Amino acid sequence: MSMLAINGERLWQSLMDLAAIGATPKGGNARLALTALDGQGRDLVTGWMRAAGLSVTVDQVGNIFARRAGRNNALAPVMTGSHIDTQPTGGKFDGCYGVLAGLEVMRTLNDHGITTEAPLEVAIWTNEEGSRFVPVMMGSGVFAGVFALQTALSATDVAGKRVADELAAIGYAGDAEVGRKVGAYFEAHIEQGPVLEAEGNVIGVVTGSLGLRWYDVTVTGMEAHAGPTPMPLRMDALYGATFLMQEVIRIANDFAPHGRGTVGVVKVHPSSRNVIPGAVTFTVDLRHLDPVRLAAMDARFRAACAAVADGTTTGAALDVVVQDVQYFAPTPFAPELIRHVRQEAAARGYSHQDIVTGAGHDAVYIAGVAPTAMIFVPCKDGISHNEIEDAKPEHLEAGANVLLGAMVAQANASA
Amino acid sequence: MSMLAINGERLWQSLMDLAAIGATPKGGNARLALTALDGQGRDLVTGWMRAAGLSVTVDQVGNIFARRAGRNNALAPVMTGSHIDTQPTGGKFDGCYGVLAGLEVMRTLNDHGITTEAPLEVAIWTNEEGSRFVPVMMGSGVFAGVFALQTALSATDVAGKRVADELAAIGYAGDAEVGRKVGAYFEAHIEQGPVLEAEGNVIGVVTGSLGLRWYDVTVTGMEAHAGPTPMPLRMDALYGATFLMQEVIRIANDFAPHGRGTVGVVKVHPSSRNVIPGAVTFTVDLRHLDPVRLAAMDARFRAACAAVADGTTTGAALDVVVQDVQYFAPTPFAPELIRHVRQEAAARGYSHQDIVTGAGHDAVYIAGVAPTAMIFVPCKDGISHNEIEDAKPEHLEAGANVLLGAMVAQANASA
């Protein structure tokens, strides 16, 4: 059974056909959530789903589910899916790959006349990207109970248009209740990072999602003229801040391989060439797979802030304020599903490795309500959210084969 | 002769009277160069000059000279002066103190019926601040031949108004040729820095002006997502840049006491919380009193840039481009004039110290064409270019007494 294989050419053709809707001159896609183009994309894919004999339902937040009956339809479905909305200058594979790999799994089972024990479903989650409406990962978030249906429906875009109205306008304001029991959830996705390519592996066995802590840090010293102020009399906010910026990186390095540390935004006040900075605000992003280690990273960062504040670090006491902005707990995926993915990759002879996801995915929300795993395939130079996003047909085919094998194994294990 | 003393109350009253023109609600001054308010300020001070029996001339760039005849009027004058234009939210003392201390010297000599060997002059230099028209230090710069008269006269403000027309509008488009021989130049000024206050001294004997080198530095790495990109695969432009920002400070510390190093502006691209910075541009300001040491600071900074570029510093090679923006050579002041200032401070029992100026002053340009020295007095918290700029009457009086003694000594030494 596990050597059953999907049709790589058909998968690729479906990806290219969907990518023709909202295609950009640079080879990418602009198909923002709940626009007319998103509606056209949904129509195209649900047409394929119906043509494959799947029963399509739409829930109240516009999530689409295409179901293939099993032998025992009382069992909760083994589900796969992702999203087909894109960033304003997005690529052809982010999200679409997961949906169309799921469809290809269904088509393949049709081709071979195979029925699984548990029913199978392919989901298209509404507004994963969050480019037009927040919150991001809206459809899966409501499905998993992370936020309320009304929160999602009343969200507005910059033009003031509401999600509820835009769903209706494209014909995807469904009536199915949002959320129900899912037996297992798999999601295939391009990695959106450089690891598989760097390691030369085809399949990433995703063991979980990094937790993150976001902070805004403000260091305040004393603004003064760069010329007349001798070094020992300065309270240079930027000088103190640079030690904290470096400590963010050092912490992440010391918590390898799953630690991440990033300072992405720096604002200097008053921002004049010949004025010693009086205040610096910067963002900090710390991530780890393990909640205990993430807490240790947090503690070490706060200790570094205290050492800058009391003058230990630079010799000049500075005011340091650390504001917590966001916390997402690390999300470990389900061991039995991870095992299916790993075994399928091995059985098919695909080079593979364990990997974590640092980016957000619908799977991370679904993991809160169902056993979940993900399958990564390489993307060129690790680049995503970009029109030049690219992936190799043979890698996409390999990932879909792993998805096929893992879903079938899980659906039959449900017996 | 050296115990001759100025009238501190009269000096203070003149400062306050001038400060009433363009007074701001927060206690500062807004009397931008060549505005109607600057014209009113010039009228007030030249009125005082004429009342003190001084002969007033105005040159083609609007510089004002008030001359008190000596016994030998063939000698080049011993001059003092400064400016009375202010920043948009400037203080009452920056510049005005130097002009009115000079006037007070003249009034005091009148009071005592003293005639010096060489003639004395008080100068009011046009547009020192550069807030409305660039170049900054315009009047003294043209006088010293640093830039051409036509460059100054054709400079425009943001409304497109020309210096030449604005000079005429306020009645200060003079006809005297710009530039002539000056026997010696003294300038009294508030320190605009924190050194005298920190050291508890009343008089700063200014031995010279720091030279400076300005750079724009751009570090380029690779922009990537903060979550999916493991630390060893990153090319974090900001991380590399922080080492250079710190090296600027370390270099200045290692070239104490006259080294200065400041990073005042930092721009991060793309400036998103969860994106590893792909490029960082920041400004560098290095200063020193000694040209050889300033060159050594420059060499050390460039070596640090090279070490970041080749990956020695962070392990990741980054592109580093250093662009030279400005160079001002260090300006040592005239030893014999410095000696007059130091001797006067000592003879009058004022606590004093040698000091350098890191800020630009008209004296720095005049030093290129005449023996020059400056006298600093403390200002509160080292704050200037600010409406809360403040100075103590007794310090202003002390500085004017030193100016009086130094000018008389120099004028009589000319015999």
TrEMBL record, chains A, B:
UniProt-listed NCBIfam families: hydantase (TIGR01879), PRK09290.1-3 (NF006769), PRK09290.1-5 (NF006771)
Keyword field: Hydrolase, Metal-binding, Zinc
GO MF assignments: beta-ureidopropionase activity; hydrolase activity, acting on carbon-nitrogen (but not peptide) bonds, in linear amidines; metal ion binding
Family to which the UniProt record says this protein belongs: Belongs to the peptidase M20 family.
Source superkingdom: Bacteria
Entry's EC annotation: 3.5.1.6
InterPro entries according to UniProt: Amidase_Cbmase, Bact_exopeptidase_dim_dom, Peptidase_M20, Peptidase_M20_dimer
Free-text comment on the cofactor: Binds 2 Zn(2+) ions per subunit.
Cofactor(s) listed: Zn(2+)
Official protein name in the record: Beta-ureidopropionase
Species per Swiss-Prot/TrEMBL record: Cupriavidus basilensis
Peptidase M20 dimerisation domain residues: 208-309
